[in-house]
Amino acid sequence: MSRTIFFRNKPIILETASIGGPKESKGCLKDYIERKLDDDLFDEKSFEKAESKMMLAVIKKVIEKAKLDDVNIDSIIAGDLLNQIISSTFAVRNFNTGYLGVYNACATFTEALTIGATLIDGGYMKRVVCSTGSHFSTAERQYRYPLELGSTRPPQAQWTVTGAGALILSNIGDGPKITCATIGKIIDYGVTDANNMGAAMAPAAADTLLYHFTENGFSPNDYDLIITGDLGTLGSRIMKDLLWEKGIDIEKNHVDCGELVYNLAEHEYQGGSGAGCSSMVFCSYFYKLLKEKKLNKILLIATGALLSSVSSQQGESIPGIAHAVVIEN
User: Are 320 and 303 contacting, i.e. CB atoms less than 8 angstroms apart?
Assistant: First the structure.
């Protein structure tokens, strides 16, 4: 059994686009986020409509930057955190192309990249858009509490990123390439705290990384950076401890998108999370570093906590998932 796909016809990342909410646009990546919002309603009547509008904006933008039209796109692979992934569905209905709606919570971005890369590598499609997004206010009231309650956030909590990212994968062109992908499996350590996403997701991230390294003969030294999507400060520490117990040390070249988004000294305790976290950070910051050859080979692993308000109310624990993709020049 193999969970790693090696792509012979390595899909190329032609272009990316990113958008960030007011909080994100004032954070550590403010100079990299392409479109910065000063209103998290994005001139809409609800936060849900604003989230969908963000995804619509980045998908339109990335197609425009590639000098293409939606008829040149074979499919859009997109997902978000809302029930029935309505943000993605309502955004993609504006395009004349195929659509694959995907959901793996905050791991949806690397899931979309894996599916898109497989379709292109197999010769089934030529150009695919991959996009994910999230919004703090929609996620908070879906998974935790009504915003009107003004609930106090515990110190283990992360802040769901208000933002979105989109990229185009192609069978021809110039740009960084996806060379392989490792599909994660569900890992459940029995965490039941819906605020503690880092602890719920860290074991899955450690499992996928351990498999990626040991089964394929890779090591942390093979990568300029090992980038987790949204573990935050606490989750990153747990993941590194779990890997350390197995004899793998990623301390020197590990970074977490959730830790990069905000100024942690001034903002949220553990950093960012959400389906839009890894996509916004990669499509703004890391893609630029790859294009400028400041990075040449990275391992991007997004992590997801597979809970719902129903499962939490029924006392279920929180399963975690993590998918990894290798991107290199």
Answer: yes
Write the CB contacts of 309 (distance below 8 Å, at least 6 apart in sequence).
142, 143
Burial of 221 by CB count in 10 Å (0-12 exposed, 13-18 middle, 19+ buried)? Answer: exposed
Q: Which domains, and CATH codes, for the chain?
A: 9-170 (3.40.47.40), 177-328 (3.40.47.40)
**Residue 30 CB-half CA count within 13 A:** 11
Query: CB-based contacts of 145: which residues, under 8 Å, 6+ apart?
Result: 151
d(CA 162, CA 48): 11
Q: What is the pLDDT of residue 268?
A: 58
Q: What is the DSSP letter of 302?
A: E
H-run or E-run covering 201: helix 197-216
Q: For residue 37, give both structure tokens.
A: 């919002």
Q: Which long-range contacts (CB under 8 A, 24 or more apart) does 29-38 make?
A: 29/260, 29/261, 29/281, 29/284, 29/285, 32/284, 32/285, 32/288, 33/163, 33/280, 33/284, 34/61, 34/283, 34/284, 35/61, 37/162
160-208 pLDDT, tens digit each: 999 999 999 999 999 999 999 999 999 999 999 988 889 999 999 999 9
Pairing mode, if any, of strands 254-256 and 272-273?
A: unpaired
Q: At what angle do helices 197-216 and 232-245 cross, to 10 degrees?
A: 40
Return the structure tokens found at 222. Answer: 């093979």
Supply 310's token pair.
């129903």
The pLDDT tens digits of the residues spanning 10-31 come to 999 999 999 999 999 999 999 9
